[in-house]
Amino acid sequence: MAKARDPEERISARNRRIIIKAGIEIFARKGFDGTRIAEIAEASGLPKANVYYYFSSKEEIYTAIIAHLIAGWDDALKYISPEREPAEAFRLYIKAKLDYARRNGAESRLFASEIIQGARFLTKKDRDHMRRVTDVHVGVVEGWIAAGKLLPVDPRHLFIMLWASTQFYAEFEPVAADGLRKTRLKIEDYDKAAATISETILKGILPAS
Amino acid sequence: MAKARDPEERISARNRRIIIKAGIEIFARKGFDGTRIAEIAEASGLPKANVYYYFSSKEEIYTAIIAHLIAGWDDALKYISPEREPAEAFRLYIKAKLDYARRNGAESRLFASEIIQGARFLTKKDRDHMRRVTDVHVGVVEGWIAAGKLLPVDPRHLFIMLWASTQFYAEFEPVAADGLRKTRLKIEDYDKAAATISETILKGILPAS
DNA sequence: GTCTATATTTTGATAGAC
DNA sequence: GTCTATCAAAATATAGAC
After folding, report:
1. A10-32 tens-digit pLDDT
2. Which of A111, A160, A166, A192 to mutate to test the interface with B (most CBs of B within 10 A)?
């Protein structure tokens, strides 16, 4: 029994992974309603019926991807912590968020697409989790302000500026590339973005030395 | 003839306008591939065949909307001009962009959706136009830097920060509202956003006085 | 200009042989 | 676990009466 189950589980896990990966790309480009299972099947190299063998509906693939995506975030966002100096913390945070977005472009666009389309499949649990993480970060920034390490600034609007600026390059790459007069964005463009965002915002919120 | 054509043209113009308006909402929520003509027809209060009477295909409705949208932008973006002082220019620009996004939420989301989905229907003409407008603004900022009115900063990345920050609230309203711990965004939230973005970025790029 | 009816194609999903 | 064949529903688009 154990002998027989192992390879089956490997095949199962592998195919589920392939389907998820193909789904990320296609859902990102077409949105939930615009995506057809046949496309995911084709991109996965599987017949359509096999996709239905692993997932019972389009929605099940989609929500599996969303859950997988949110789980992958917390790592990238651990730098805002009270024991750090704010300048270093924000530099690391900005770099980590830009890196994550660049390396997971399709996931980032899929999430953006889900939000633009009204966050229909974001569970209450996911949203509560994101709100709590934000609250913790807001608390850290308020602590820095109280300690005189940061100028008074609304921490929630500050984080929105950071989210927006760091996500834009991956989510809206055609516009970002046009704006930079490049055909495609390279690592150097992301580095330059990190430098510009960090320097501008830090000068804007650090007390004059 | 003239007597008969006038009212007909009014009906025609009116129905085209109604279809465009309904299309903006639905394309914004579902993307191009996810939108069905039947939905646009229903939201317009017209039978599906009437939509086909005014537009010969889904793509024709979509591209008409994109063109209409780009035409509406230039007005909102006229504040970056060399005769202004940079502080005032950026404040007005940030306010105008946030206002436009708030008042034209569906259009903003539709455009964001189009970019995320790969800018498939943005014509070369539209992209060239946007690039040229950006180049003019970049030139103005470079002039201010050369005149010592702004600290050295990469103008293209600066504009991306401004685009991203000002568009985020309308495009990703569910996330912005969660981040601010509100259920829905109000005008006051947009005002506070304008203040935070303006103050932070201006402190970041204006020379110490 | 309007709208019912319909042709044609595509879609999500399943049955059932291997 | 895999995959061909297929269904029922829904989609785009058009014909043609009013």
Report:
1. 889 999 999 999 999 999 999 99
2. A160
